[in-house]
């Protein structure tokens, strides 16, 4: 007994690994149908395949998935595989698959072209909007300059040609008094 305890303590890692393996096997054995929290395979639900195989083993015959013909229990697995391959790789299936690929490639290229054209149209519309805004602002500026020129020509005819320096100084002072506060007219403009 002493030898057994000494061996277990000296090989503790091995004992733990063996213990977990046994517990894992017992845990899997207790669950019916395997674990249900697994990601399904891309080929279909494996539990359906197992149920189909169990039923075919019990009855002795089953129908082929692709052809619908009855496959007997005495038919070899090579024959079953060969029949499956013929049905999957039949010329009509290959032709339809290639047609499907050609159609999808053609459709994708048309969609890409339509997307490019739409993007180009949107880009041109934005450029047109910018040009229209620029045109409107230029027209407004031109009208404003025309109005200023008219006012200047009208006021120059009305103005008396002799302004004294005291009148100019009074004009500057009144402009400072009646104009905007200095705080709202900074010396530098930030860019």
Keywords for this entry:
membrane; 191 residues; transmembrane; transmembrane helix; mainly alpha; two-stranded antiparallel ribbon; elongated
Brief rundown of the structure:
It contains six helices and two strands. It is an all-alpha fold.
Question: How is this structure best described in words?
Answer:
There is one protein chain. This protein has 191 residues and is mainly alpha-helical. The chain has a domain at 92-154. It contains six helices and two strands, in the order αααββααα. It has helices spanning 2-10, 12-30, 46-59, 77-88, 91-158, 165-178, and strands at residues 62-63, 70-71. The protein has a two-stranded antiparallel ribbon with strand order 1-2.
Number of helical regions: 6
Q: Kindly state the number of beta strands.
A: 2
**Widest β-sheet, arrangement of strands:** 1-2
Task: Kindly provide the radius of gyration, computed on alpha-carbon positions and rounded to a whole number of angstroms.
Answer: 46 Å
Distance between the termini: 92 Å
The helix-and-strand class reads: mainly alpha
Assembly level: single chain
Q: Note the run of SSEs as H and E.
A: HHHEEHHH
Low-confidence residue ranges: 62-68
